[in-house]
Write a structure and sequence with these properties.
The chain has 318 residues and is α/β, with parallel strands linked by helices. The chain is built from ten helices and 14 strands. The chain has a single domain, classed as Ribokinase (UDP-N-acetylmuramoyl-L-alanine:D-glutamate ligase, 3-Layer(aba) Sandwich), CATH 3.40.1190.20. The radius of gyration is 19 Å and the shape is globular.
Length: 318
């Protein structure tokens, strides 16, 4: 049997996700949930979970602690993901998703990630730098929490470059910009995050493509920008591609769709597909995720069906 290396999904803040479903949500009133589901989440864990569903081995790093952290670790194992969490004294944050059937709305209540402490941070860095050389790819996910410096991700990307391990990063603001100078294989973000990162409005295709060229000029080998239901774009030295996601009739919960998109890109890329094809597959994964109640809980067969519905065209040379 051929042993496949794990993708190292590196983030700092896993989540114990509570998803509550209501027939109708009324503010300033008592609301009784019809269904409550707990799941392990957070951007890096969502990506690792989706990779495992697709058949690509994955491990997830992050700070984890307390009773909520014990639940996250147990859930991670049920996803067939290797848990490489760094212990901390503070409990892992709990985030709550509220789904209302009356208007098909999704409300997300997010706790800030607790500071793990200096010793835990040092241990996290030391352990995960060692893991990189044994990984098939390094996937970095998430906005840095207040306790981490904006250059926190840079050391991991430099180590990956030294070890010849490709890097894909899903982040924004200064944390992303600092990594771009290390020439990651792919920088992924949505149009709003691109706007926040560059301090410019990204409300049409022309502006989005101009912003992507800026990130490409900073060092990213490929830049990928999504717009939810709208067109997505990939830019690299070969040109610019536009992708139109498939129509989804029943949208249940879009949270985690960006993470599943990244997982699909990674899975397809490691399978030997070109990046434009991998992006189509990633978009199919993100679209499939919209149909599920909890993040990264889609079916692989559904991804294959949606993959055939993604429209892609090369719109210009760079």
């Amino acid at each position: 049997m051929i042993h496949k290396k794990n993708v190292l999904c590196l983030g700092l803040s896993p989540v114990l996700q509570r998803t509550l479903c209501f027939d109708r949500l009324v503010l300033n009133d008592v609301n009784r949930a019809r269904t409550t589901v707990e799941s392990g989440a957070g951007k890096a864990l969502n990506t690792a979970h989706a990779l495992a569903i697709l058949g690509t081995p994955a491990q997830v790093a992050g700070f984890n602690g307390g009773d909520s952290g014990c639940k996250v670790a147990a859930l991670t194992r049920t996803y067939n993901v290797k848990a490489c969490f760094t212990a901390m004294r503070a409990p892992t944050r709990i985030c709550t998703t509220i789904l209302s059937g009356a208007d098909n709305s999704t409300t997300e209540l997010v706790e800030e990630a607790p500071a793990p402490g200096r010793n835990a941070q040092k241990l996290f860095v030391r352990e995960n730098l060692k893991r990189i050389s044994r990984a098939s790819l390094l996937a970095i996910s998430g906005t840095l929490p207040p306790f981490a410096d904006d250059s926190f991700y840079v050391a991991f990307v430099r180590e990956a470059n030294r070890a010849g391990v490709p890097v894909m990063i899903d982040s924004h603001r200064t944390a992303l910009i600092n990594v771009l100078f290390e020439r990651p294989l792919l920088a992924k973000l949505n149009a709003h995050e691109l706007s926040v990162t560059l301090g410019e409005r990204m409300d049409n295709e022309r502006r989005i493509l101009r912003g992507m060229r800026d990130l490409y000029g900073m060092g990213a080998m490929n830049v990928f920008v999504t717009q939810g239901r709208g067109p997505a774009y990939l830019l690299n030295q070969g040109g610019i591609w536009r992708f139109v996601p498939p129509d989804i009739a029943l949208r249940v919960n879009a949270i985690g769709s960006g993470d599943c998109t990244l997982a699909g890109i990674i899975h397809s890329y490691l399978s030997g597909k070109s990046l434009p094809v991998a992006v189509c597959y990633g978009i199919a994964c993100g679209s499939a995720n919209v149909e599920s109640m909890t993040p990264a809980d889609f079916e692989r067969k559904r991804v294959q069906a949606l993959f055939r519905c993604v429209k892609a065209e090369k719109i210009t040379a760079l």
